[in-house]
Amino acid sequence: MAVLVTGGGGYIGSHMVWALLDAGEQVVVIDRLSTGFRWAIAPEARFYEGDIADTVLMRQIFSENEIDSIIHFAGSIVVPESVADPLGYYENNTVKSRSLIASAVEAGIPHFVFSSTAAVYGTPEVLEPVTESVSLKPESPYGSSKLMTEIMLRDTANAHDFTYTALRYFNVAGADPKGRSGQSSALATHLIKVACATALGKRQSMSVFGTDYPTPDGTCVRDYIHVWDLVQAHLKALQRMRAGGGSLAANCGYGHGFSVLEVLDAVRKVHGSDFPVTFAERRAGDPAMIVANPALARQELGWVPEYDDLNGIIRSALDWEQHLMRKNAH
Ligand code: UFG
Q1: Which of 132, 142, 148, 327 has the most Cβ atoms closer than 10 angstroms to its Cβ?
Q2: Which band of pLDDT confidence, cut at 50, 70 and 90, is reported for residue 6?
Q3: How far does residue 63's CA lie from ligand 1's centre (Å)?
Q4: What pLDDT sits at residue 128?
Q5: Is the pLDDT of residue 45 over 80?
Q6: Can you tell me which atom of ligand 1 is nearest the CA of 193?
Q7: Which family does the entry's similarity section mention (predicted)?
Q8: Which fold has domain 191-221+255-329?
Q9: How confident is the model at residue 77 (pLDDT cuts 50, 70, 90)?
């Protein structure tokens, strides 16, 4: 049986493809290459260029491949962009996911792993690691667009022979430990990516968004998780569902947070250089602090993270950034 990865040309999707191939799985990818890259998709995967909401293409993919599982990454991921363009986010993340889920049900695909997000929680009422049972109060259209998809999956699983795992990602960073993939989008706005690009001189400077949050140093606190640990959680989710496990929503984070200033200090330390930083206003849609309680993923999926080390995450992100600089120089 094969696994269909949507958004397999993107940052996390491309790592997922490598992890599946490493595990001996057959992999099919669909990506319309709006932000992903053809070169980022492992050549051993069968590739279809197109849109997950193209129901004719989806039928073709399901008829040409023996697919038993879908891992769904395709979507838009930038919180402030979603605040500026909510309808674009609901279209791309919610409406298109609805179409993909309908195609999966029509084709009788039994297993579905969904790339959800910690943004479904918004700012937790208590500043401590969140469990999956706290109230879901997204603060951005991005978070709402993902929560709406979780709700569709829940109701679909109640109505059909269909099991899903929604993995709520915290802040994903770093690159494949074997150097085969990394965060490659020049437009990426995520903190570790931006800080590494600034440290390497690819960017002139960067901003810290907000210094007056109710956190120890006034900057936002996040739970940074290595992308390789994250994709391993997806593999575990797949194995669990194939073995008869039921539907589940689980956090993917390490359970401890770092402030923006702590991350910047770590980048300075790991790279061994200083770089310019300006202090700016708060960014729209940012919760003050969000850290995972990962107990459920550990218990239900048997997920044991291997790369829980901020400096190591930053090292791998810097290595990938340098790889991109060399690649673009040729
Ligand atoms: N930040 C800066 N400067 C930058 C970039 C980011 O100060 O140049 C700050 C942000 O304001 C925020 C923190 O760094 O406080 C982290 O921001 P990111 O953009 O790296 O990530 P987000 O927390 O906004 O969002 C990410 C994912 C979401 C996920 C969320 C969960 O994109 O999918 O983490 O916490 F839901």
Answers
A1: 142
A2: very high
A3: 39
A4: 85
A5: yes
A6: 20
A7: Belongs to the NAD(P)-dependent epimerase/dehydratase family.
A8: UDP-galactose 4-epimerase; domain 1 (3.90.25)
A9: very high
Check pocket membership of 149 for ligand 1, CB cut-off 6 A: no
106-121 burial, b at 16+ Cβ within 10 Å, e below that, comes to: eeebbbbbbbbbbbbb
- pLDDT band per the 50, 70, 90 thresholds, residue 10: very high
Q: Is the pLDDT of residue 214 over 90?
A: yes
Residues 225, 229, 233, 234, CA torsion sign:
positive
Tens-place pLDDT, residues 104-162: 999 999 999 999 999 999 988 877 899 999 999 998 999 999 999 999 999 999 999 99
CA of 171 to the centre of ligand 1 (A): 7
Phi, psi values for residue 163, rounded to 5°: -125, 135
Sequence-separated (6 or more) residues with CB below 8 Å from residue 274: 268
Mutate which of 168, 196, 206, 222 to test ligand 1's pocket (most atoms within 8 Å of Cβ)? 222
What number does CATH give the domain 2-174+224-252? 3.40.50.720
Any ligand 1 atom below 6 A from CB of 146? no
Active site residues: 142
Q: Angle 227-242/11-22 helices, nearest 10 degrees?
A: 60
**How many whole angstroms separate alpha carbon 330 and alpha carbon 55?**
39
